[in-house]
Amino acid sequence: MLTYDLPYISVSFGSANVVFKMFFSKHVIEFVNRYFTFQMNHLYLLLLVFLSLIITPQPVPVAAWGFQPHRLINRHAVYTLPPSMISFYKHHINYLSSQAVAADHRRYAVAEEGARHYIDLDYYGIDVPRYWVQVIQEFHRDSIQEHGLLPWHLLVVRAGLVQAFKDKDTKNILKISADAGHYLADAHVPLHTTSNYNGQFTNQKGIHGFWETRIPELLLSDFDLWVGKAAYRDDWYQRLWDIILESHQAVDSVLQFEQELTTIYPEDQKYSFEVRLNSITKVYSAEFSRAYHHALNKQVEKRMRSAIKSVGDFWYGCWIEAGQPDLAVKFKKDQAYNPEYQEIADSLWRQQHVLRRSE
Ligand SMILES: [Zn+2]
Fold it and tell me: Looking at residues 200-226, what average pLDDT do you find?
């Protein structure tokens, strides 16, 4: 490990991922940004060359959506649920939200976990068998483990959630619901359906985190995440594949618009610098991010909305298939539970529009 100490800046070399540890000071950010606008003398020029050689976008753990969008997707999905479910889900909303990323954390501990989060459709082909029994006849287990099994795993998760409802097993209902929200959200990310998942084959490294983390992080406050109420569907095999295929169809535009904008925006406008955890990090600039978001016609927001709706539909569908178990039973004492009222509330929920936030 080499360390150079410069005024305000401590530069460390440890591995390929060079991190700049800088004193947490606004002046440092201004300093870097100012001299990236080409007002520099020789010393700063040297520093600039030095920085540009070794600062790269922070390596992105390929996790589908940033942690915050994952949490928000599960949280918003709760509000799509019918009265018979919502009291239970709302009671546990913080768990469902925080555990929305548990599946990603497991990737570091469980070898088989990684493949559950994606599917390389460019490897399998879009006509890949929809049924697991056929898939394992056509493809070697090692290949499946390498190229992902997201849609097939979601069907396992679905069976697990139906069973948990039948068993009225609160712990499993919550755990599997949180995981289902995660995997469904992953299925909505175009780059989770291709082996070029981080633009590594097209000289666009970092695009994964750009799409799923940077864009939502910057523009979330503009997103409309209200998606109405959950709907029952009896065609989950088809629905899951539709989600995956929609995502896969979007891969070309995800890559193409980034490439096109890169030819328009010079390097110093495409990227900017931010302090994160006391480190200077190179990120896609706000201007470039907005231009990308609009070029994609708000695709990130649309996929996030679709993910929320799908999670609500999924939870609701599993509960219906389990025979609509009484989830309110655990809160009877607390909430003056009235089965008659619950029935009326459910029927109103089915017939009427759910009120929008603004109404
Ligand atoms: Zn994931």
Answer: 95
Burial label for 65, CB within 10 Å (0-12, 13-18, 19+), is buried
Give distance in angstroms: CA of 73 to centre of ligand 1. 13
| Phi, psi (rounded to 5 degrees) for 98 | -70, -35
For the record, the structure tokens of 216 come out as 């939502």
In a 10 Å sphere around its CB, with 0-12 CB exposed, 13-18 middle and 19+ buried, how is residue 16 labelled?
A: exposed
- Are 204 and 259 in contact by the 8 Å Cβ rule? The answer is yes
Domain residue limits, the chain: 2-54, 67-268+281-351
Q: Domain 67-268+281-351: give its CATH code.
A: 1.10.575.10
Count of residues in the chain: 359
Q: pLDDT (tens digit, 9 = 90+) per residue, 49-85?
A: 445 444 444 444 444 577 899 999 999 999 999 999 9
Ligand 1 center–CA 118 separation, angstroms? 8
- Output the pTM of the full model: 0.77
Instruction: Tell which wins on pLDDT, 136 or 346.
Output: 136
Which token pair is 255? 């890559």
Residues 6+ apart with CB under 8 A from 154: 180, 183, 184, 187, 240
Q: Taking a C-beta distance cutoff of 8 angstroms, is the pair 258, 207 a contact? A: yes
Expressed in angstroms and rounded, the spacing between residue 221 Cα and the centre of ligand 1 is: 23
What is the pLDDT confidence band of residue 25, given thresholds at 50, 70 and 90? Answer: very low
